[in-house]
Design a protein that fits this description.
The protein has 3 helices and 2 strands; from the N terminus they run ββααα. It is an alpha+beta fold. A two-stranded antiparallel sheet has the order 1-2. β1 and β2 form a beta hairpin.
Length: 104
């Protein structure tokens, strides 16, 4: 057994990957510009998984998701950037936006 924090990473490139370039079936992925929150990349299953009619690169996140979800994402990214580590979001309720929203 490898001691915690002492993993041997020399063989990571040989780790089997089931389907390279894919997302596990229980998740989806989208990325957005950190300043404008405009979508840059969207996985093919994101709109369906999030219950949205569509999600396309160029869409504004604030026009797709509810105010609370956008707020949670913005806070997580701000903390992530200041701490220089990834943001992990759990239990964020993703609901379609049903109002015009202009966030600052």
């Amino acid at each position: 057994m490898v001691e915690f924090g002492k993993a041997d990473l020399t063989s990571c490139d040989k780790e089997p990957i089931h389907i390279p370039g894919s997302i596990q079936p229980h998740g989806c992925l989208f990325s957005c510009d950190r300043d404008t929150f405009m979508l840059r990349r969207v996985s093919a299953n994101a709109a369906g998984m999030l219950g949205l009619e569509h999600m396309r690169p160029g869409d504004m996140l604030s026009e797709l998701l509810g105010r609370e979800a956008v707020h949670e994402i913005r806070n997580a990214l701000t903390n992530s950037l200041s701490l220089k580590r990834p943001a992990y979001l759990f239990d964020v309720e993703i609901t379609p936006a049903v109002y015009p929203y202009c966030g600052a």
